[in-house]
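User: Sequence in, structure out. Go.
Assistant: Echoing your sequence, followed by the structure tokens.
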Amino acid sequence: MTTRVLLTVDTELVWRHHSAGDDWRENFARSYDAAGVGIPYQLKVLGEHELKACFFVDPMPAAVHGLDPVKRMIEPILAAGQEVQLHLHPFWAHLAETEESGRTAELTAYDYAEQRDLIVQARDLLVAAGVPDPIAFRSGSYAANADTLRALAELGFRYESSHNGSHHPHPSDIALDRRQIAPVEVAPGLVEVPVGQIDEGEGKLRHLQLCAVSFEELRGALRHADEQDHPVTTIVSHSFELATRDGRRPNKLVRGRFLRLCRHLADNRTTMPTAWFTDLAGMDLKAQAEPVAGDPTARLRRMAEQAWGTARYERPVPTLAVATGTAVAGGAQALSYVL
């Protein structure tokens, strides 16, 4: 049995750039093509390694700026032969409300009828921008609940991918066990494909997001999934994730993880083939899967990596003193490939 790998990339215009007064073109440059390591770069690397990825595109900025920015997001992805599915941040539909209003930030702040209307609006905008009818959905911030599932099922979606145990019960509020990582039917015709997790002990989970875990941890989670015959492993990234938070410089630490992950998946494509949601028909929906147990040493190395990366790329300081002892030694070794 093979374990299919879903490389998913949430692709969007970033709210913080909009709220800082950037026009959509500047926001596009810092969100979609951030520092030369955004979507065009990622598509190039994926193509070089012959890997599949699903880009969850948020078309809701079109409610404010028209379809042009959404078309510019979508066209390179489709031209590269990759998959586009539906992402949704509802605040774009309600710019008349202040950013601090709270209610507009997450889809779960709305009732069933309102959620359904927002999903219909987003789907129609995505299709109008040139995408075939989407079959998969991920809510912004993983904010989904029973009303979301009901709406998606009624609208004919086949897959949902907002269940994130490390963000449960808020904002990820789907009524599944936090440790659920195997695909499961959650409404008639609708399959939940949860985000992958690492079990860090003491009830703590950490999701498989490129900026949240090290390559070593990603590799361990993939090996575990292969050995335990998991049907699928879902990894998350973002259009802007390989850049600094301001979108102005490459983050060599995260870019390094992405490159190493792509090489690893290319080298192991027989047992860990990358997949699109359109490839998932016939998945075993009764399969059992448990998150991989985290390696304490790998966790320490990742913590050192993250501290170094934050200091180097987000808050540069003249002298870096991350920690002492094992964490620093491990971190220095882990960071050698990006220096």
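User: And one key feature?
Assistant: The longest helix spans residues 296-314.
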